[in-house]
């Protein structure tokens, strides 16, 4: 393995830090393929000249604790390769990966197993449940691998089962469950080991739209309660907008743009990103804070009920204004009034959506 630069330390306040990560597939030395990529050659030309494929191309990013970081890209963009490099299911070719300040690529097999067993869990598109094990035993499997005593692991698995809404299904086998329920079991198995980091590789893409939406709701709910660090892979831009605190748009192994949903929709950096964002209803993506004016005076007691929070969507404001055009005030998470709605800004956003 070829490592990255000279620095081998990461900021300890980051959950994940990735520096100049490359993954080259092929049997020959990767140096020529990387050199061609750095000179701007396309994947097709690199394959033609070297017989090698660039899976991940000089990717750098960091994820804060409790952040949901979504990597969105079409098939072949490199997103699944990237997330497997984060757990070393695929060995990176070059670069650095730090997990909570620890150098993942410097770990020996035992240290890496400990990370996978306790600090990091992964949920795949295909549920990967053991068909001969009951639901409760599937969930407890990671704890069994850790050597946790049976009564304790079953108690912890039962608790997590309730958390994901499958109370009463412990003694069933996976084939007796719907696809959405099986994915909940996969999520429960990941949560049972109490990891600080969760890696999701297109976990909902095999589900029908209604169940997929329900699972997104479930993940949002769990994140509000459990505050895990999440890296979530998807090919669905609507899903990325719904789940992500920040989103990376990936193409040909590299990141085209990284930003909040609001930043991507209002200021796409490339034509590729613009194609994804052009039909997105802004009122359902932009937050109230983007249409907020400073508070000149506290609202009167009569007006206090007519309020929204900074993290609500503009669509909520639109619905309120359609029923009553009077002033709307804005509160922060603590319930303190911090602003008022700029109705002219909301009107401009709605006109942009109508174009």
Give a verbal description of the structure.
- The protein is 37% helix and 21% strand.
- With 355 residues, it is of the alpha/beta class.
- The model is unreliable at 1-7 (pLDDT under 50).
- It has two domains: 63-92 and 107-280, 3-Layer(aba) Sandwich (Rossmann fold); 283-354, Alpha-Beta Complex (CBS domain Like).
- It is built from 14 helices and 14 strands.
- Strands 6-7-8-3-9-10 form a six-stranded mixed beta sheet, with helices on both faces. It has a four-stranded antiparallel beta sheet with strand order 2-1-4-5, with helices on both faces. A four-stranded mixed beta sheet has the order 11-14-13-12.
Global outline: globular
Structural class: alpha/beta
The top-level CATH class of the largest domain is Alpha Beta
Briefly note the CATH topology name of the largest domain: Rossmann fold
What is the correct CATH architecture of the largest domain? 3-Layer(aba) Sandwich
Order of strands, widest sheet = 6-7-8-3-9-10
What count of domains describes the coordinates? 2
Q: Outline the biggest β-sheet.
A: 6 strands, mixed
In sequence order, what are the helices and strands, one letter per element? EHHEEHEEHEHHHHEHEHEEHHEEHEEH
Q: Give me the CATH superfamily of the largest domain.
A: P-loop containing nucleotide triphosphate hydrolases
Radius of gyration: 23 Å
Structure annotation, total helices: 14
What fraction of the residues are assigned to beta strands by DSSP?
Answer: 15-25%
| Arithmetic mean pLDDT | 90
